[in-house]
Design goal:
CATH architecture of the largest domain: 3-Layer(aba) Sandwich
Radius of gyration: 18 Å
Strand order of the largest sheet: 2-1-3-4-5
Number of helices: 10
Structural class: alpha/beta
Largest sheet: 5 strands, parallel
Order of helices and strands: EHEHEHEHEHHHHHH
Number of strands: 5
CATH class of the largest domain: Alpha Beta
Low-confidence stretches: none
Strand content: 5-15%
Length: 210
């Protein structure tokens, strides 16, 4: 039996996932969490085979929790299930130790296949993501400037590009406004940009936001 923990802040999403999984023999949702810290606490107390982890949750983000999960239990399979398109986060979370990446508009049967694959020790990515990974890993390809940002800088970049204010980002990431402003300055320097308007233009040009 594959034991699954669902970590998502939306109850209706958790119920929907439980319903999909309950129709499949050999997979069982044994617990759920409404935020990242709750998920981490339960992982430390109970044995799971797969964690379905959202990126955007109250308090600490899924990216932060993923890092802590892999430090606590490197062998635990973490399948990222999120609204964010592959272009935004997929490569980063896989580099951080995730076993797979799915968007929430994926078909139910794809979710089941992904759970089974990562539970057996494999990696699960869509065909389109596999192509992106192959291109990314091409040693002859010069990496884009945003690919050299830290995980936190990248999070701030995406939110700035979506028009989120410094204060709102500080609330979202549980960091001070001063810290977010520092990240913004680093982003501008690393991307050789002058202001937030240029950050927005850069993100749109590189298809990091829609």
């Amino acid at each position: 039996m594959i034991r699954v923990l669902i970590a998502d802040d939306h109850e209706i999403v958790r119920k929907g996932l439980k319903q999909i999984i309950s129709d499949t023999l050999g997979i069982e949702v044994t617990d759920e969490a409404s935020n990242g810290q709750e998920a981490l606490d339960k992982i430390k107390q109970t044995n799971f085979d797969v964690v379905l982890l959202d990126i955007k949750m109250p308090g600490r983000t899924g990216l932060d929790i993923l890092k802590d999960i892999k430090q606590f239990n490197p062998n635990l399979a973490v399948l990222i299930l999120t609204i964010y398109p592959e272009e935004q986060y997929a490569i980063r979370v896989l580099q951080s130790g995730a076993s797979g990446y799915l968007t929430k508009d994926s078909a139910a049967n794809e979710l089941i296949l992904a759970i089974q694959k990562v539970a057996s020790g494999g990696k699960y990515v869509s065909a389109s993501l596999a192509e992106k990974l192959a291109f990314y890993l091409d040693t002859d390809k010069e990496k884009e400037a945003h690919e050299l940002l830290s995980a936190r800088e990248y999070q701030v970049l995406l939110q700035l590009a979506q028009g989120v204010t410094i204060k709102e980002i500080s609330n979202n990431l549980n960091l001070s406004s001063k810290t977010i402003s520092t990240y913004r300055s680093r982003i501008l320097e690393k991307l050789n940009l002058k202001n937030t308007a240029e950050i927005i233009h850069y993100a749109i040009k590189h298809k990091l936001v829609e």
